[in-house]
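It is worth pausing here to work through a concrete case rather than discussing structure prediction in the abstract. The textbook approach is simple: state the sequence, then state the predicted structure, then interpret. We follow exactly that order.
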Amino acid sequence: MKKTLLLLLFSLVFASCNKNSSSTNSTIKFWNFGSEPAQKQALKELIAAFEKQEHCTVETTELSWNDGKTKLMAAFNSGTAPDVLELGSDWVAQFSSSGVLMELPKDSTFEKFAEFARPPALWQSKVYAYPWTVDTRVMFCNNELLKKAGVTSIPKTVSELIAACEKLQAIEGIYPFGANGDDKHRLYKKILPFMWSNGGDIVSAAGKPTLNSPENVEALNAYITLSRMGIIETQRQLDVAFTQGKVGFWFSGGWLMEKIKQGNPTLDYSVALVPGMKQAGISFAGGEYVAINAKTQQAELARKFMKYITDGKTSMEYCKKVNEAGFPADKQYYNDPYFKSVKHKSTFAEQLAAARMTPVHAQWLDLEALLENAVVEALYGTKSSQGALGDAQAEAAAKIGQ
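Step two, the predicted structure:
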């Protein structure tokens, strides 16, 4: 009897050890865009907790936003894509429509995400990614310059913004407005809020291009009017100029607060909701998404990791460690006391309620390039707004269809 009991106990211990050994040898690859030191460290800590919990290894590879998408596409084409990958909100449709991402359950887990963050995760009503973090842009205002110019209230409409910039022109050596110029993958984020709040859009509900609508032409003209009273530069340079106190108004993201804190902590500035044209201001919302390779050999572990990293509690920890990460995509965390304790963060949370993501379209990146090229042509005066958007519309119709 004792011998039988010992054998039974031995077999149970062996099975348990064997299970842990098997799990320990389980490895998944996660490609992400957390290349900054704070992002790397935050991810390292969160991933370490998952590895301990699941007795596995998560191998990470950091990509850059400049060529990361190209590397991902090359990896899928060569059969070397990672098990789990991070995608920008406006990239998901291109990958999901090509069949390289695993279909995910559309259950209560998915429903917890903010409503505006769900569409990019869908393709033909099926889920192919989970939202991870979301963020938006607000209007940064130089309070000292506004006071000198006699601007007594923060503009709530584009007309009021133009009027305020006209007053700021009286101050020597500064720029009333920061206008994003030729800056790929960034410029469209600055012009779309003008178009959206004027009733315009880039594609119709049926997915057809509408770049040269009257609403879009009018919005681009307003943006050009502001640019003529300011400085046209890249986002990076305009962030620097605002930090130096040289720009009155500039639309930017949460990362700028950290740059100001490090570069000019005494700068007297405030943030406000973006102004609108014919309706309340609508800002651009961006997001990071997590998807799974349809051909992964570690499907179960990949799903566990995706659910873990996009869970509100986990992403909340990430956002606390990385301020520019924004907010968890899990909507129940938007009103977390932490965001109220961080200066200006509550304005970003308020703006998220009036923010949009880019249209879900398999050829969005083509549309994005056409839009940005048209804006650059109009900004630098080589074409009128009507002409630039009209040419972009014709090219879009040829590529995508009427």
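Step three, interpretation. Residues 1-24 have pLDDT under 50 and may be disordered. The longest strand covers residues 283-292.
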